[in-house]
Amino acid sequence: MKITNLGIANFRSFDSEGILIENLSKLNIFIGKNNSGKSNILRFLNLCSKAYRKKTELTESMFNLFRAEFDKYENYFLGKNNNLEIAISIRPEDFYKKLTKYVNPDDLLTMKIDLFDGKVIEKCEIFEKLNAQELLSFSRENQIAFSNKDQSVEELNKLLAKKVMYYFSDLSSKIILIPNFRKISEQKEDQESNIVDGKNIISKLFVMQNPAYRNEENKLKFLKIQEFVRDLLDDPNITIEIPHDKKNMLVEMNGYRRPLESFGTGIHELVIMCSALALYEKRIVCIEEPEIHLHPYLQRKFINFLLHKTDNNYFITTHSNVFLDFNEDTSIYHVTYNELKTTVSFANTSEKCCAILDDLGYKASDLLQANGIIWVEGPSDRIFLNRWIKLLNNRLNVDFVEGIHYSIMFYGGKLLTHISMKPFQFFNDEFIYLLKLNRKAMIIIDRDGISPDSKLNQTKARINAETKRGNCWITKGREIENYLSKNTLIRWLNEKHPNIPKSKIKVQEDENKKLQEIILSSSSKIKIKYNEKKVEYSKEIIKHIDDKDLDVLGLKPRLNFLIKNIEEWNYIEPRNE
């Protein structure tokens, strides 16, 4: 397929600006909610195919055929009778090979054309950037008439318009559609149809199974289908056959012959699709929701079959997240609808792929994993955080469960230098990408430093810059323990030293001191070394924290923001305080 980018405008849910499908690959996967406009992409391609099949030797222009096929009220954006437009990008070498001497080979030649009358709406900008000498040299090398720069640019645009329409017509001639309803059956075949839904598959497979003389390549196709059925059913000895009555496909397994449908709807559908694909080569195949009746294991087998056993290009609409696992010869597109128009975004980053999962409503707990992770430095931080969350849970009448609604994980001090909160790169070993472990995450980091004006170290500053929406919580005090209120510490110290009256325990709140310093300065009789038994002491301290102790150094707003994130991670409606 020579077309690299395809734009479509003024068609159904595609407005006058249109959609742009970038970086077309062997597999082009369109994922989005119901009614987002995914099917309109396949519908457009199918109508182009129908128009092309009406072409005869007497056809002077494809544009009239396109108009006749598309000219229906429901095919226009908001019913407006505006001509459909396409924007096509091709590589320079697919126009003229020698053009790469004068332009960047990575640049694309793009042209927008009216699909109904052939008028060029937007010319190729790259030609305008060539100087007169470059145009002269290129024109001589390719026997293109040259008089002056303006006329040469105009001539190149005319030649490009012919070339892109040739490629588009070629694409239209190769399109077949596999709809979302598929069933093996035999009936009179519509020779004009490009729709493959299981009808007459048996007859075609019978011909492949019993090829005519010198058509032995058909037998190889049949054996390819048999090999796929063996892989599906995990049995290398399976054989398939079409009996003489052509009523069904028989599968022989462990000495027993059984009709294909006895293996269940999923296997039945998958064999239909793969059989159809074995019948066609070097085509543009549009498939609606191939995941219907297929669990993820079979979906992955199907994708591998497309990638490694066929030479077609594919446009596939789906709601399945399984397709996101593939990046070999695969382009993923996120299709959205904003109640007015459809937008198509090329999902070339993990962040965009995560947006697809959000759009489809997938949660980590669907895989028995927590729906979000809060990263903290160590175990004592987890103890305090869980206590604070529980206090807010009680006040807001929610019931978060650690391990389901969220989990708390440790990054441990200097290990912070090896992690990143950036959207993860697909191939990069510089950092451990925390969002790869769970795309829903927050991180809490001690400020450190002897004053609020102390500059964050390079690692903490980097991680803070990498996060969005405040998901990096840098403590206002020197460490997370500075959020402990004076009254909490007095009650705890009084419990540890009941012989010292509360009035004699002088806790001085100081956001720039470590907790151990604050404890030791509270009384000359108190010798507790907090840093030596952090976990043990933190478990004791939390018993003395109540909801009145959350108004310290802006702790409560931070916790409210955290609670809001946990609610979003779990698709819980926000609660008013």
Summarize the structure in words.
The protein is of the alpha/beta class and 577 residues long. Helix content is 35%, strand content 16%. It has 17 helices and 20 strands. The strands form 5 sheets. Strands 7-11-12-3-13-14 form a 6-stranded mixed β-sheet, sandwiched between helices. Strands 2-1-4-5-6 form a 5-stranded antiparallel β-sheet, with helices on one face. Strands 16-15-19-20 form a 4-stranded parallel β-sheet. The chain is elongated, with a radius of gyration of 33 Å. It starts with a strand and ends in an 8-residue tail after the last helix. The model has no long low-confidence stretch (mean pLDDT 86).
> What amount of the residues lies in strands?
15-25%
Rg (CA only): 33 Å
Strand order of the largest sheet: 7-11-12-3-13-14
Q: What is the helix fraction of residues, given as a range?
A: 25-40%
N- and C-termini, Cα separation: 57 Å
Structure at a glance:
The protein is of the alpha/beta class and 577 residues long.
Write the layout of secondary structure elements.
Blueprint (H helix, E strand, L loop, with lengths): L2 E7 L9 E3 L5 E6 L5 H16 L8 H9 L14 E6 L18 E6 L5 E3 L2 H5 L2 H10 L7 H25 L1 E4 L22 H9 L7 H16 L6 E3 L8 E4 L2 E4 L5 H15 L4 E5 L7 H14 L3 E6 L11 E8 L4 E5 L3 H11 L12 E4 L2 H18 L10 E4 L8 E2 L11 E2 H4 L3 E5 L12 H9 L5 E3 L11 H11 L18 H6 L13 H8 L13 H15 L8
Parallel strand pairs: 3-12, 3-13, 7-11, 11-12, 15-16, 15-19, 17-18, 19-20
Antiparallel strand pairs: 1-2, 1-4, 4-5, 5-6, 8-9, 9-10, 13-14
Helix pairs in contact: 1-2, 1-5, 6-7, 7-8, 7-9, 8-9, 11-16
